[in-house]
Write a structure and sequence with these properties.
single chain; 123 residues; three-stranded antiparallel beta sheet; 5 helices; 3 strands
């Protein structure tokens, strides 16, 4: 059931055991992915697309974007920060969509990096 994003964030911030609460709700995600980590997936799955178009989760805050392009920022309590850090380090494999994989941004290819630099519109 879709709820207002503020209500979802407030609920998450009250959780004492973040991994347990996510597992209880069947939420998984990708390591090192601000768009598809378990926190982002929970927020996205709990809110309406009329209210939230995108979710980005950083270590210290979460950002949501509404359909009009307005950004809203929510500071993350230490429990959420600790979960994100531990999850990205490989803890909680039951919450990881691909526990054996490297995560969203762990693979580095120098050739791809050079191609990205060549296509940089900012010079």
């Amino acid at each position: 059931m879709a709820r207002p994003v503020e209500q979802v964030i407030e609920e998450m911030h009250s959780w004492q055991n973040v991994p347990h609460e996510l597992a209880k709700r069947g939420i998984q995600g990708k390591k090192n992915s601000c768009y598809s980590c378990p926190i982002a997936n929970y927020i996205y799955s709990s809110t309406s697309r009329d209210e939230v178009k995108a979710v980005l989760v950083g270590l210290t805050r979460t950002m949501t974007v509404d359909p009009a392009g307005k950004w809203t920022y929510f500071d993350s309590p230490i429990r959420i920060q600790n979960f994100i850090r531990d999850f990205d380090a490989g803890a909680y494999p039951d919450l990881d969509i691909d526990p054996e994989g490297p995560g969203e941004y762990d693979e580095y290819d120098e050739e791809d990096e050079q191609e990205d630099e060549d296509d940089d519109p900012w010079g």
